[in-house]
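Make up an example, fold above all:
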Amino acid sequence: MENKEDLTGFNVIYTVTQATGALLVLLVLIWCDKYRGGFAWAQPASRFNWHPLLMTVGMVFLFANSIMIYRGLRSMRKKQLKLVHAGTHSVIVVMILIAQIAVISFHNQLNIPNFYSLHSWLGILTMLIFFFQYALGLVAFLFPGLSAPVRAAMMPYHIYFGITAFVLAIATSLMGVTEKVFFVLDKPEMPADQKYSSLPAEGVLVNVIGMLFAIFGILVVYMVTHAGYKRYPRPEDNVLLTGVSE
């Protein structure tokens, strides 16, 4: 197969993407720690903060790096790339589970209904697609149980739904931070100058976080859909996890 890689501008865009994602995680951490009470599991409000932090780290930053791994680590052997890709997804699964325990236990302790908002519905859809992708990837692409033609036929769908899950994760995150900031800054007892509409410091921070979610999503989708940035097959790629020397 003809190598059609064109890495013009790749290093700059990849670096900007990673910096944007790292800044996003840092600002979510600062928001939860400085304005929302930190991460003490014993306190309901603080326990909740594990939800936005872990979902941002897992379903946004790590998920993005997992789907970009074939671009960012293109010199690595396909066998190792698949293992890192699957391993990263496994870490994300653990983060999702902890994040959901945190938010559900927070709601239950304060008698707040679960799964009533559009944010939660969209989150469920996103997680279902992610878990389906994870299981499909383990069965179809990591272990050598399916034939190469079947894997090749499934690959476009795997890529499409992977990108779809990531875009949904960005959308769900934007809805989540918006929902939270309205809950905490638009209470009737809040002073007028601290309400969201007055754009206090926390409101500005949350708006910046929202913009970073959007920018990061745009950059990642560009990276994974740019044909020139794709890692095209190497001769050794046909040997996957078979024990045969590459």
